[in-house]
Amino acid sequence: MLREAERVVLGDPFDDKTLLGPLNNESVAAKMDRHMDDPRARGARILAGGRRRAGMPTDLYYEFTVVDAVPTDSLLSREESFGPVVPIITGRDEDDLLRTANDDKLGLQGAVFTRSMTSAFRFIEQMEVGQVVVNESNNWWDINMPFGGAGARSTGWGRPLDDTDRRIIAILQADGRRPYSQLAEHLGIPASSVRYRVRRLEENGVLQIVGIANPLTIGFDRFAMVGIKVRPGTAREVCRRLGELPETSYVIMTAGQYDVMAEVICRDTEHFTDLVNERMHHIDGITATESFFVLEVHKLAYGWGVDQVESLSLDPAVPAEPPG
């Protein structure tokens, strides 16, 4: 790597001898500065480059950079630098390398260099990216291939969720206590990939694993939907204020007779009266409310949005245990 780095000629992009020109703009150069400062302060070794070159026509000429022992949670590892830098992160074995490759929010494209076809296909199947290139740098792709990042990643367009994400969601909607090891065996992927996908879905607000109870059976006797009318232009702020109330479990903007609907759960009539008269009606923008009390709950389900899949028939006899 260092031998190749020494061959890189930084200079005028119109000169035939130049292999590396200036960065696009000052924002990118400043980002490179941050990405160098962070690992440097945490013990990484700058083996080549690592700074802007003085004496050039502008401050945008960044030296070709090689950084060793990069922390996996550093900016250089977690973010796209868009600059001439090669971060080196070592792993104990293929499992460790796959965990490192999949343990961030990026997922547009990846590359693997190996003499083993078995290893190549393993990385192709298990790297959480849109495309995997074998024995070629990942600045190459076939424009005739579909292009986009892995599901729910922060790189790539048009793939918010993939089929594996949807199957994981469907299984957890049926039983949120399913252990990762069981999901991994059923889906045919490593448990580390399941763990990463669940964490990513949670961080992106796609999935929330909670215990759902029927409020009427645990001492909350006033369970109601409240239709709310507001002054024009205040609906979003009213929703924000309603969302801060501990009694609201569901707040939405709507089209129709009401501008906002809120699901509220209270202990008793006195609690409900205090909520509506003393707090909700004091929120600026609310002009009228109408309450609909729930008398009986005949269905309380949160399995919507994902098609039924074969995985819902997982053996119910397996003892439940916390995910992981």
Biggest β-sheet: strands ordered side by side in the sheet = 7-8-6-9
Estimate percent helicity: 25-40%
Strand % is 15-25%
Oligomer: single chain
The computed structural class is: alpha/beta
Could you tell me the CATH topology label of the largest domain.
Aldehyde Dehydrogenase, Chain A, domain 2
Question: Strand tally, please?
Answer: 9
Low-confidence stretches: 309-321
The CATH class assignment of the largest domain is Alpha Beta
Distance between the termini: 38 Å
Mean pLDDT: 85
Q: In the CATH classification, which architecture of the largest domain applies?
A: 3-Layer(aba) Sandwich
Coarse morphology? elongated
List keywords for this structure.
three-stranded mixed sheet; alpha/beta; 324 residues; elongated; Arc Repressor Mutant, subunit A
Structural summary, described in words:
With 324 residues, the chain is an alpha/beta fold. It folds into four domains: 1-90, 3-Layer(aba) Sandwich (Aldehyde Dehydrogenase, Chain A, domain 2); 92-157, no CATH class; 163-210, Orthogonal Bundle (Arc Repressor Mutant, subunit A); 215-293, 2-Layer Sandwich (Alpha-Beta Plaits). Helices cover 30% and strands 15% of the residues. The protein contains ten helices and nine strands. The chain has helices spanning 2-7, 26-41, 75-78, 94-102, 117-126, 163-174, 180-187, 191-203, 235-243, 269-279; strands at residues 45-48, 65-68, 85-87, 109-112, 131-134, 222-230, 248-253, 260-266, 286-293. It has a four-stranded antiparallel beta sheet with strand order 7-8-6-9. The chain has a three-stranded mixed beta sheet with strand order 1-2-3. A two-stranded parallel sheet has the order 4-5. α3 (75-78) links the parallel β2 and β3 (85-87). α7 packs across α8.
